[in-house]
Amino acid sequence: MDFWAWLILITKVLAVFLLFAIGAMPLVLLERWILGRMQSRYGPHRVGWRGTLQTAADGLKLGIKEDMIPGESDKGVYWFAPVMMVMPALAAWAIVPFGPEVEMGRTIGLWIADLNVGILFFLAMGSLGVYGVVMSGWSSNSKYAHLGALRSSAQVISYELVMGLAVLAVIIYAGSLSLIDIVNAQAGLWFIVPQLIGFLLFVIAAVAETNRAPFDLPEAESELVAGFHVEYSGMRWAFFFMAEYANMLLMSAIVATLFLGGWRGWTIPGLEALTGVIWFLLKCSVFMFGFFLLRATQPRFRYDQLMNFCWKILIPIGVVNLLIAAGLRMAWS
Amino acid sequence: MADNLETTVAFWYLAIAAVGAGALMLVARNPVHSAISLVIVIFHVAGLFVILGAGFLAVAQIAIYAGAIVVLFLFTLMMLDMRRLPEERVTHRQIWLGIPLGILLAIEGVVVSVGTPEISASIKGAFPPATVSELGGSTQALAVALFNEFTLPFLGASVLLTAATIGAIVLARRVEAHEQADFPQAASGSNTNDTAAQADAAEPALEESAR
């Protein structure tokens, strides 16, 4: 790699990181506004113009809060758990394609890395997210955190299988593990059409993986207060919060890439890159809105219902769907 | 992969970190710390696979070993609530067996690293880089090997794993029936058969707490 290749790579990484770090703040505000509107109340409206500075104020509050560490907790693991929560959520962004290739002196793809095992990398990073849960729950030296971590990790591990089955069906259609190839394979037809069942499975699993309503048992603010991260406060707690939003964004991006053709859509000749990025962000925001809508409208699952739903309904459907997809692919080619 | 500066630096970092974390795993007196060190080892070995151009193996290693197996270890350890092992000597009498075996392994390593070209040429069914790129990548090469030459062992391993899973379910159920006989009022609403792996992980913990 020459100097320019390094520079381009570092710029891309910084751009994606900043997009996430800055992008999470308006998203939190947007969610609270939308939730407020859906529940016939104002939402944040005091700090700044119509509450625009609410997230900044909350961030400041978290920043100057006392950093509590529970007695007899395992300090090292306690310290590292929030990092372990955010790290995989950020690392998985490396393979998300934001747009097509652009010509600027040299050909630059609007993605950080085109791994030939891209989608598996995403699944691997997703499966690492559970370490943050287990480590924080165990190291807090608190029964509530402990129970919350057990509950949450069982949920995440179970729904990972559903997600894997849905992704496998897409891989069978695309014939490649690279996300770029998967997007290009959807040039004619978005995979949501042949894989509607896979799409629904993936979306359900994505909501469960990110611990959002109606699968938000790990948090369950109205009855349990919180789960694995109950002992965390201040900036450490903010890390869990950031990880949740990073994961929501990531899941939206992956759903858009796998099932809705990624950056593909109608383009203006000469502006393919720009329209591509706009299409991609538009598709992502549809799913982000879906996350908010679910939270505002859906009641929470009971724990046994959650597990039965996964193992007795979703996984059998996923296996049958995979078999049908493989059969169709064999007949087709 | 080409021998350049980046690869060399990455190799030495990954190799030293993997060995260091491995040593940490062995000497840690807290089982959860051992499990976390094991995850670090798995991570760095995955990095070594990436350097070797085996991306699929690297990702599969993280997804399966770090993402599934060690998580289940941690799950069990959390249930057992083993905070610390008693302070004892790290090494025991096995050290007299360990030293000769370690020396043997070191010699093996030297032989392999010195004689690499001859050895890799002598392995039957090996995929030289040219064949790999012809097939379209290491993932494809792995698929070709797995589903052509090694189909039977692959299927055999699958059957074995299925048998192990079913066995775990059967064992878990038997204990549940026994508990139901002992405590009839605690029999309702149990969902331990939800997942074989989960039941497997939870099983020793249940037994432990019953004592």
Tally of domains of chain A: 1
Query: Oligomeric status of the shown chains?
Result: heterodimer
Helix content of chain B: over 70%
Q: Structural class per helix/strand content of chain B?
A: mainly alpha
Chain pair forming the biggest interface: A-B, 33 and 30 residues
Q: Summarize the biggest pleated sheet of chain A.
A: 2 strands, antiparallel
- Find the CATH superfamily of the largest domain in chain B: NADH-ubiquinone/plastoquinone oxidoreductase chain 6, subunit NuoJ
Please provide the ordered H/E string of secondary-structure elements of chain B. HHHHHHHHH
Strand order in the sheet with the most strands of chain A: 1-2
- Give the terminus-to-terminus CA distance of chain A: 39 Å
Number of domains of chain B: 2
Low-confidence stretches of chain B: 186-211
Summarize the main sheet of chain B.
none
- CATH hierarchy, class of the largest domain in chain B: Mainly Alpha
Please sum up the structure shown.
The complex is a heterodimer of chains A (333) and B (211). Chain A has 333 residues and is mainly alpha-helical.
Description:
With about 325 residues, chain A is mainly alpha-helical. Chain A has one domain (about 70-330). Helices cover about 65% and strands about 5% of the residues of chain A. Chain A is built from ten helices and two strands; from the N terminus they run H-H-H-E-E-H-H-H-H-H-H-H. In chain A, helix 1 (about 5-40) packs parallel to helix 9 (about 270-295), helix 4 (about 120-140) packs antiparallel against helix 5 (about 145-175) and helix 7 runs antiparallel to helix 8 (about 235-260). The longest helix of chain A is centred in the N-terminal third of the chain and has 36 residues, at about 5-40. Chain B has about 210 residues and is mostly helical. Chain B has two domains: about 1-90, NADH-ubiquinone/plastoquinone oxidoreductase chain 6, subunit NuoJ (Four Helix Bundle (Hemerythrin (Met), subunit A), Up-down Bundle); about 150-210. The longest helix of chain B is centred in the C-terminal third of the chain and has 32 residues, at about 150-180. The radius of gyration of chain B is 22 Å and the shape is globular.
